[in-house]
Design goal:
By secondary structure, the protein is an alpha+beta fold. Among the domains are: about 140 residues, Orthogonal Bundle (Butyryl-Coa Dehydrogenase, subunit A, domain 1); about 120 residues, Butyryl-CoA Dehydrogenase, subunit A, domain 2, CATH 2.40.110.20; about 150 residues. The protein starts with 7 loop residues before the first helix and ends in a 14-residue tail after the last helix.
């Protein structure tokens, strides 16, 4: 099985032409950023991904993880050593506050680096992903004392982080959580059990810092009664060194379909005197604090969809070039299957979906930087709304693409794709969690339709459509090929505008409409956003295509997207317009 090679040309193209690194370098704090620095960072990250993480991917999948000794989790051979290299090279600190040991670089630059970790070894990459989210929640919400005590070791990677939401009786319904907290002087005692805790216990970091949602005795019912607590595996001494073991332990690790090398833990808190925890933010404001962690985590989970799609595409492409089978049209003898039009269709679909979703994800993440750093309050507000709108799109659409592309990759391999030795099956198994965790894609789609469209009265969507139509106007001024692509894209934007208006004007008494239409709305928004970025890419590449084959190929992939992927919006729009009647037609007992 071939190892992963980072797609540096496309990553740099998206950063420079679609994200616009030069514009980010004008923001306060990012003055040292340059295209040369970004390229150097990506090249070095690519070496770690290709040479260290990728070779551990298949063996880690086979070995899995297991509990041993005093409730410790052993990771596969080589994982801990790879993590030490990651920590020693400072990779975990790229986008974090320099006051606590971070490098202060843009989130949009950390994103392609993270794409490499997940493409090379998604199970391993989940550890720094969860740590990133925990760091963000602590940075935004915790006291200065907690930040000083925990952030330096977390940012440099020597301590990892988790989020603890789900309980055995409660999945996405946070209102029913039962884990409880009791006040005790300057800290709290935590009692309860959490499930599905990714990297909740392991042997790669010296300490694991858990962020735990729990309920105080006097908290109001529902989600308004939840508070967020920092509960470390080992307490930290005043100087930041490791202290005594806390009253928490792992009870078991889940046996999953995929990501076998990532420990998904059942965690127990307070079997004895109670686990010591420290309040993050204010009492009864835990969900608000957790969402500062979850929103960026949802963007990076969407990025995992891009990552696994890239890895599956590379494997399928290499197989198609090497596997001789049949005589293709126009050929006189047996040749590699890449010569067959249907195989080309599959490979082009894989590549077009991967490149479009990468662009959408990177551009959405750049809005996080602009929201946080732009000196103009109006621009900060604009990008705050844009990041909020695109977060469910990136999480939802990109994680639907991951399994789709991985599934096509199995098909390209034919019968060998169904045999584990090729590796194609692992990518499909690993990718299947992506539409589920960090809020299922059904939840993401309702968030997009209701909170991000109806409750906003469509303002954020209207702003996005304005930007899309500006790109269309640019495209209509181009040559015949670009003009045609702009026209194709324009039709999809008009359809999106119509669907948005339908969401805003539908009768309030149709209580099932949003739930039945929202998923198609999310997919439609995703595929149209992909067209937006592919048209922008075409306009940028059209002026460069004489220099490198890459630019000419970018236009060809974009044309395929417009011809064969973008038209999906028509079926999504038709399903939305059909309403909820057929969805709800069968009585429960008739299923």
């Amino acid at each position: 099985m071939a190892d992963y090679i980072a797609p540096l040309e496309d990553m740099n193209f998206v950063l420079n032409h679609l994200v616009d690194l030069d514009a980010l370098a004008q923001l306060p704090g990012y003055e040292d950023l340059s295209t040369e620095l970004a390229d150097s960072i990506l090249q070095e990250a690519g070496k770690l991904a290709s040479n260290v993480l990728s070779p551990l991917n298949a063996p880690g999948d086979k070995a899995g993880v297991h509990i041993h000794g005093d409730a410790e989790v052993a990771t596969p051979s080589g994982f801990s050593e790879a993590y030490s290299q990651f920590v020693d090279s400072g990779w975990g600190s790229l986008q974090f506050d320099t006051d606590f040991g971070g490098q202060g670089l843009p989130f949009a630059l950390a994103i392609p680096v993270q794409e490499m970790w997940h493409a090379a070894n998604m199970a391993w990459g989940l550890c720094p992903l969860l740590s990133q989210g925990a760091i963000e929640a602590i940075e935004v919400n915790a006291s200065q004392e907690l930040k000083a005590r925990y952030l330096p070791n977390m940012i440099d990677g020597r301590w990892s982080g988790t989020m603890n939401l789900t309980e055995p009786h409660a999945g996405s319904d946070m209102a029913t959580l039962r884990t409880r907290a009791e006040r005790q002087g300057d800290h709290y005692r935590i009692f309860g059990q959490k499930i599905y805790i990714t990297w909740g216990e392991h042997d790669m970091a010296d300490n694991v810092v858990h962020l735990v949602l729990a309920r105080l005795p006097d908290g109001p019912p529902g989600v308004k009664g939840l508070s967020l607590f920092l509960v470390p595996k080992f307490l930290a001494n005043d100087d930041g060194s490791i202290g005594q073991r806390n009253d928490l332990r792992v009870l078991s690790v889940e046996h999953k379909i995929g990501v076998h090398a990532s420990p998904t833990c059942v965690m127990s808190y307070g079997e004895n005197e109670g686990a010591i925890g420290y309040l993050v933010g204010q009492e009864h404001r835990g969900m608000a604090c957790m969402f500062s962690m979850m929103n960026n985590a949802r963007l990076t989970v969407g990025l995992q969809g891009v990552s696994i799609a890239e890895r599956a595409y590379q494997l399928a492409r290499d197989h198609a070039k090497d596997r001789p089978q049949g005589i293709a049209p126009g050929e006189s003898s047996i040749g590699p299957i890449i010569k067959h039009p249907d195989v080309r269709r599959m490979l082009m679909t894989m590549r077009a979906l991967t490149e479009a979703s990468r662009a959408v994800a990177y551009v959405a993440c750049s809005s996080v930087d602009l929201r946080n750093k732009h000196p103009d309050p109006e621009q900060r507000a604009h990008h705050d709304a844009r990041a909020a709108l695109l977060t469910p799109v990136v999480k939802g659409w990109c994680t639907e693409i991951g399994p789709e592309v991985a599934s096509i990759g199995v098909q390209v391999h034919g019968g060998m794709g169904y045999v584990e030795e090729t590796g194609a099956g692992q990518y499909y198994r690993d990718s299947r969690i992506l539409p589920i965790y960090e809020g299922t894609n059904g939840i993401q789609s309702i968030d997009l339709a209701e909170r991000k469209t109806r409750f906003d009265n469509g303002r954020a969507v209207d702003s996005l459509i304005v930007d899309m139509r500006a790109v269309i106007e640019q495209g209509l001024q181009g040559d015949e090929k670009v003009c045609r692509m702009a026209q194709q894209f324009a039709a999809s934007v008009d359809a999106l505008d119509e669907v948005k208006n339908l969401l805003l004007t539908r009768p309030d008494d149709d209580i099932y409409f949003s739930g039945s239409a929202s998923f198609n709305y999310l997919l439609m928004m995703g595929v149209v956003c992909g067209g937006w970025q592919m048209l922008r890419a075409t306009i940028a590449a059209n002026g460069e295509q004489g220099r490198l084959p890459f630019f000419a190929n970018k236009i060809k992939v974009a044309q395929f997207y417009m011809d064969s992927v973008l038209p999906r919006y028509l079926s999504y729009a038709a399903a939305i317009n059909a309403g909820s009647e057929s969805t709800m037609a069968l009585a429960e007992g008739d299923f």
